[in-house]
Amino acid sequence: MSGISDPHSHEQSRGPDDPDVVYIGYRRRGRVIVEKRPEQEQLTPERSLALVNHSSSGFEWGYSGSGPAQLALALLLDYTGDEAFALDHYQAFKSEVVSQLDCAGSDECWRLTSSEIDAALRETTAEPVAPSIN
Known about the structure:
The protein has helices spanning about 10, 45-50, 65-80, 85-95, 115-125; strands at about 20-30, 30-35, 40, 110-115. The protein is of the alpha+beta class.
């Protein structure tokens, strides 16, 4: 994900009063669902498919394939609102983040927060990431 002029420009598109965004993925009756909260919107592949068609059958996660590539593109496109940024960085985001998502926990879903997305984007753009304080 190198070669971007300002790796933090995607963060500037969100205002300081915007609530934290959380994406949640799960399966319902075998169908993949990805929700964006707090808006309770369902993320669909249509917008990302208009840019690159990796998987017309939809999203997937947990491995490095076409469904995860479509999800990575859709997530970055939705999160940043910047087509060029999403296109430049979704493959690395797929490898570093989407391929690692897992629904095997007790709640059988994955959660991806705005803080986690920002940290992943800083890391994959070779920017130093401050350690989190727990």
